[in-house]
Design brief:
The protein is mainly β and 230 residues long. Helix content is 2%, strand content 46%. It is built from one helix and 15 strands, in the order ββββββββαβββββββ.
């Protein structure tokens, strides 16, 4: 890694969707396309949703080059001025990169394992931006009985979307329970807001209030499911 401490972010790829998450103020939902005949291989990500402070990014296309070697996916963002032809690009040219990520699939651990490793792909950035921080720490607050029983998300075997619609009068927080049963905050929903994401059939999601008190635990059901929060 060049000149910076290794930082971790969460990236989830489901079908042609990519979710990039650093925190509640820096996340993006995108749709992927892989154009043919490019060298290096390219990935085009069309931004479909993002935080309130970046709504003007919706509809923009982010371009990256990628390669897969020894089970590792390397992504490098391309720094190209609007309207300019794309420059010659390779993985050794820092001048054309807006960020470089090295991603590996993390295998699920046994429940009695001592280390805490997320099964969602974890990336490390070496240069450029974004410069994400660590995943959010566990919140204090009342846990769901399933959390008390050490429920955790299972393997990534069957992709299935889930959506949350906040019809309550208060803010609701959507957390993923990782493979160790720990909460990972994905989104804060204001009254009237909704949030759809790609996930897996065996992944557990906990909704809390602003103090971290569990209000419900939900799983996808094999087709698109919308959870209405009252």
């Amino acid at each position: 890694m060049v000149g910076q401490e290794k930082d971790k972010i969460t990236i989830t790829i489901t079908g042609n969707s990519l979710h990039f998450h650093r925190d509640t103020n820096f996340w993006y939902e995108t749709t992927l396309t892989l154009p043919a005949g490019t060298d290096p291989k390219q990935l085009h990500a069309t931004i479909k949703d993002g935080p309130e402070n970046a709504k003007d990014s919706i509809g923009k296309v982010v371009t990256a080059i990628f390669k897969i070697e020894d089970g590792k996916l390397t992504l490098a963002g391309i720094r190209t001025p609007d309207g300019a032809p794309e420059p010659p690009i390779n993985f050794d040219s820092e001048e054309t990169m807006s960020g470089r990520f090295e991603l590996r699939k993390v295998q699920p651990q046994k429940k009695n394992a001592k280390s805490s490793t997320s099964k969602v792909t974890v990336g490390e950035t070496s240069q450029g931006q974004p410069n994400p921080g660590q995943a959010p720490a566990l919140e204090s607050g009342r846990k769901h009985p399933a959390e008390m029983a050490k429920i955790a998300s299972g393997p990534d075997l069957f992709a299935s979307p889930i959506a949350f619609q906040n019809n309550s009068a208060g803010i609701r927080k959507v957390h993923w329970l990782d493979t160790n049963g720990e909460r990972r905050l994905y989104r804060e929903l204001k009254p009237g807001e909704s949030y759809e994401l790609g996930t897996y059939l065996s992944h557990a999601w906990v909704v809390t209030d602003t103090d971290g008190n569990a209000l419900g635990l939900y799983y996808p059901d094999g087709q698109k499911r919308t959870v209405t929060l009252e």
